[in-house]
Amino acid sequence: MEKLFFLISIITFSLSCTPLQQSETDSAIADQDKRVEWWRDARFGLFIHWGIYAQPAGEWKGEKIPRPSEWIMARAQIPVKEYEKLAETFNPVHYNAEQWVKLAKQAGMKYIVITSKHHDGFAMFHSKVSQYNIIDATPFDRDPLKELADACKKHGMRLGFYYSQAQDWHEPGGTYYNIEEGEPHWDPDLEREPLMNYIKEKAVPQVKEILENYGKVDILWWDTPFGMTEEAAQMLQNVVDQYPQMLTNNRLYQHCPGDFITPEQHLPPTNLGYEWEVCMTMNTSWGYKHYDDHWKSSERLIRMLVDVTSKGGNLLLNVGPTAEGLIPEPSVERLMEIGEWMAINKESIYGTDSSPFFKLHWGRCTKRKTKSGTNLYLHVFNWPEDQVLRVPGLKTKVKNVSLLSDKKQVLSSHFEDNDLLINLPNAMPDPINTVIIVETKGNLEVTCNMPSFKEGKIFLPANFANIHNIPGSVYDIQALLEGSGESSIIANWIDHRTWLEWMFITPEPGIYNVEVLVKADEPARLTICIGEKAVVTEIPATKGEFTEISLGEIEISETGDITLRIHPVQDNWKGVELAKVKLVKTAGVS
Ligand code: FHN
């Protein structure tokens, strides 16, 4: 229902703001649903950030330039004419589109989105509109987009083009990141022109080129609408309207929802109620950066894909090829390892829906409707020590339980206190994520396993928290779960804007004492909020140990579903590690 409301509200919004009739709204929803079907089923795609910025690879005149490498022109304030020179030596002779597509396919990816033009304004395709393109401005006499489009067609891979429609640091009318604050472009020699000159003379014609010249394009991926106007967005939208089957994201203009929304570099804590796709780097940069070694492990990436799928989203995982045209070896290794896992477990990813459970201590769940019921795919990240897997609140008849990797290996199971208990083999067959398939019969029914009070107490473990990192913040400063199952902790909570949230059920109003199990190197101030009530409180330094600290009392004035939030107080926030929150009822409400 939530999703329906969201769809109605976004579909009735149009750039030209003409309200739709009810029947038009219904058919627009049905139409959108059908168009995104292949994409929703795919769940996993490859993002490629490739451009002439791969040559400096994060370093300019001997200085390491912070943040993603594709931003080097802006971060190092390189004048247009100087940056242009990079094109003269850009010659990616090792580029092999077919190898890239095969690699993506091997990883289990179903679509590829490649940068056709990033913010630096350089077109990685043969453009007749601007000479600043790979054929006319470099020694490389090949069109990478054409070769990729051909390879995708040959191997049945869907294809999307990224196009930076607003930011174009090379053009007098293009925008840049701080244009809205009235800052000048860093290159004083670039005489400014109105945005619409650039939109009419470069952006619109180039978007037409990428959509016309490379066969069927499945996705057009807009980015950073800084300084964009409604008029400019409408002109681009008019081009898109000629391709009714093509999907677009939500980044054309500030309120344009597109076909899917795009959380970047963070994992949403819950389903977002609309089609969504997380875009994520494997290290920290989108473009190739020769010294960026902060690689996420294959284990983390596999679990990330599963986490996203279990919440009903897609994962667009990035690689940044080198100036020679090679995908860096650490990325290749990870894609191969993900592929090994996918080869065995793909049934639990493609075309599956989100989890019917609230949260699961041992991992995640995806599901698929079958003729007679539903298949639940239990993704076990943490193998229970007693080899008994508890599936909470399952009320549906179970036909069969087996390992997905070996369906002949049937697992015994029985119900106890409304939970399904599955007897697991002693050893975890796949230490990263072993998938168990539970085939159920009839309508799927699950009793919500949200935590609730027992004898006046409730424990809210770290792994049941919704971690709200700031969208778009650098991955390094995002809080995350470390450890496994109920003994996980929230680590790296160093950004004061990141907040935590737990949901639980309270049977009765009352005054509750809040206790936390934390480790703090320095005193830290927090605000605890339940509904309208908020208390500011302080955690003392804990001398390197996890320590139980009482944070004081708070009133819960309602019953039913309650949300508790913890926000850092900005001043001097140095971060804490948090293992658990405990609420203990101390009195009723007078
Ligand atoms: O500024 C870009 C960035 O370079 C990269 O392309 C990402 C990918 O989503 N988008 C922008 C930041 O949101």
Brief sketch in words of this structure:
By secondary structure, this protein is α+β, with helices and mostly antiparallel strands. The chain contains twelve helices and 28 strands. The N terminus is likely disordered.
List keywords for this structure.
590 residues, alpha+beta, 7-stranded parallel beta sheet, 12 helices, 28 strands, 28% strand, globular, disordered N terminus, binds ligand FHN
Q: How would you explain this protein's 3D organization?
A:
- With 590 residues, this protein is of the alpha+beta class.
- Helix content is 22%, strand content 28%.
- It is built from twelve helices and 28 strands.
- It has a seven-stranded parallel beta sheet with strand order 7-6-5-4-1-9-8.
- Strand 10 and strand 11 form a beta hairpin.
- It is globular, with a radius of gyration of 26 Å.
- The N terminus is likely disordered.
- It binds ligand FHN.
- Ligand FHN binds next to loops.
The low-confidence runs, each spanning 5 or more residues with pLDDT under 50, are: 1-13
- Tell me the Rg in angstroms: 26 Å
Q: Which class best fits the helix and strand makeup?
A: alpha+beta
Overall spatial form = globular
**How many strands, which pairing sense, and closed or not: the largest β-sheet?**
7 strands, parallel
The number of E-state strands comes to: 28
Tally of DSSP helical segments: 12
Strand arrangement across the biggest beta sheet:
7-6-5-4-1-9-8
Strand-residue fraction? 25-35%
Distance between the termini: 38 Å
- Average predicted confidence as pLDDT: 93
What ligand species are in this complex?
Answer: ligand FHN
Helical fraction equals 10-25%
